[in-house]
Write a structure and sequence with these properties.
Elements (H helix, E strand, L loop, with lengths): L1 E3 L3 E7 L14 E7 L1 H11 L5 E7 L2 H13 L2 E8 L5 E7 L5 E6 L8 H5 L10 E4 L5 H13 L3 E4 L10 H6 L2 E2 L3 H8 L6 H13 L4 E5 L5 E5 L3 E4 L12 H14 L4 H15 L12 H10 L1
Parallel strand pairs: 1-4, 1-8, 2-6, 4-5, 8-9, 9-10, 10-11
Antiparallel strand pairs: 2-3, 6-7, 11-12, 12-13
C-alpha cells in the first residue's frame, strides 16, 4: 500500500472540557506525539502487517527527524519523504477532553509545499501497489495529480476527505474508488446535516452520483454506513470505552485498506475498519493508539 499525505507532530493538551471562544483553560497534561493523517494511516497499515510506503514532506528540523525515525520504527518505507529546508515540519495543535472528544488545528508547514515533484515519486511505486490512500492535509492539486496517476496505473484510490472542504472538485470524485467521510465531513460535502443512518444513506447516494464507486460514512459509536451501486449495508460499532478519538478515522481507513490488500470483500473490509477504529479510541494519542496485528486479530476473534 502507498500513502500520500501529511506528516505532522501532534502537540496534545488534555483538558477537562473543550475551551470556548476567548477562554483560557488550564490543561491537565501535555504530550508530543507523531501524527498527520498520512503518517497515521501509514503507521496503522504497517502495524497491521501490510507493506507500506509513504510519500510526503517534513522540515529540516528536530520534528522532521523524529517523525521519519518514528515511521521507520513502525516499519514504514520512508525513502520517498522529502526533507524541505525552507519550511518547518507540519504540526497539529490538539485539545482532548475527558470524554475523548477533540479540537484540532493543523499548521501544514512542509506538507503545504507538496507539489508535482512529490507526485512524481509515485510513478515507480504505483505499478506494484494494492492501493493509494489519500487525505486532504496536502494541496488539492497534488491530491488530484496523485489520483490521476493511480487511476492510470489501475490502482484503487481510497480518499479520506479530511479536513473536508465545502467543495470537492468534480474531477476528484471520478478518480476515487472509495471515499470515507465521517458524519461531519459528509455533511460538509453534501450540504446538509448527517446525523444517523437515514441521512448517511442519502449522503452516500449523492457521493455515488458524483462519481465515486463506494461511499462509506463513519458515524462514530453508531456504526458505519456503506453504499455502492449494487448494495447498501450498515455495520454496527464495536462496544468500547472511548478515551481519545483523534486517530479513529485514520485507523478505520488502514483497517479497511488492510482487508482489501489481503483479498477480503467489501463488507469484511468495513468490519476491519470499524474494529481498527474502535481499538484506536481506547488509547490516547494518534500513532500511539494504533493497534498491532496480534491485538487486532484477538479483538476481532473476541467480538
Amino acid at each position: 500500500m502507498i500513502v500520500f499525505g501529511s506528516i505532522n507532530m501532534d502537540l496534545v493538551a488534555r483538558v477537562p472540557r473543550l475551551p470556548l471562544a476567548k477562554e483560557t483553560l488550564l490543561g491537565d497534561d501535555f504530550a508530543q506525539i507523531p501524527g498527520g493523517k498520512g503518517a497515521n494511516q501509514a503507521v496503522a497499515l504497517a502495524r497491521l502487517g501490510i507493506p507500506t510506503y509513504i510519500v510526503g514532506r517534513v522540515g529540516a528540523d528536530n520534528f522532521g527527524t523524529a517523525l521519519i525515525e518514528n515511521l521507520q520504527f513502525a516499519g514504514v518505507q520512508t525513502e520517498n519523504i522529502t526533507i524541505d529546508r525552507s519550511a518547518n515540519s507540519g504540526v497539529a495543535l490538539i485539545n482532548v477532553d475527558d470524554r475523548g472528544e477533540n479540537q484540532i488545528v493543523v499548521v501544514g508547514g512542509a506538507n503545504s509545499r507538496i507539489d508535482q515533484d512529490d507526485v512524481n515519486r509515485l510513478i515507480n511505486l504505483l505499478p506494484s501497489a494494492m492501493g493509494l490512500l489519500l487525505q486532504l492535509e496536502i494541496p488539492m492539486t497534488a491530491v488530484i495529480a496523485a489520483a490521476k496517476l493511480a487511476k492510470k496505473a489501475h490502482v484503487k484510490v481510497i480518499l479520506d476527505p479530511a479536513p473536508a472542504p465545502s467543495y470537492l472538485p468534480d474531477e476528484l470524485y471520478q478518480l476515487v474508488e472509495i471515499i470515507t467521510p465521517n458524519e461531519v465531513e459528509a455533511g460538509q460535502l453534501v450540504g446538509f446535516t448527517v446525523d444517523g443512518r437515514e441521512t448517511a444513506a442519502t449522503a452516500a447516494t449523492i457521493l455515488l452520483e458524483r462519481g465515486v464507486k463506494c461511499a462509506i460514512v463513519k458515524l462514530g459509536d453508531r456504526g458505519v454506513l456503506c453504499a455502492t451501486d449494487e448494495e447498501t449495508f450498515f455495520v454496527p460499532a464495536f462496544s468500547v470505552q472511548a478515551i481519545d478519538t483523534v486517530a479513529a478515522g485514520d485507523a478505520f481507513n488502514a483497517g479497511l485498506a488492510a482487508a482489501l490488500a489481503e483479498g477480503l470483500g467489501l463488507r469484511e473490509a468495513v468490519i476491519w475498519g470499524a474494529a481498527a477504529g474502535a481499538l484506536s479510541v481506547t488509547k490516547r494519542g494518534a500513532q500511539t493508539s494504533l493497534p498491532d496485528r496480534v491485538t487486532f486479530d484477538r479483538f476481532l476473534q473476541e467480538n
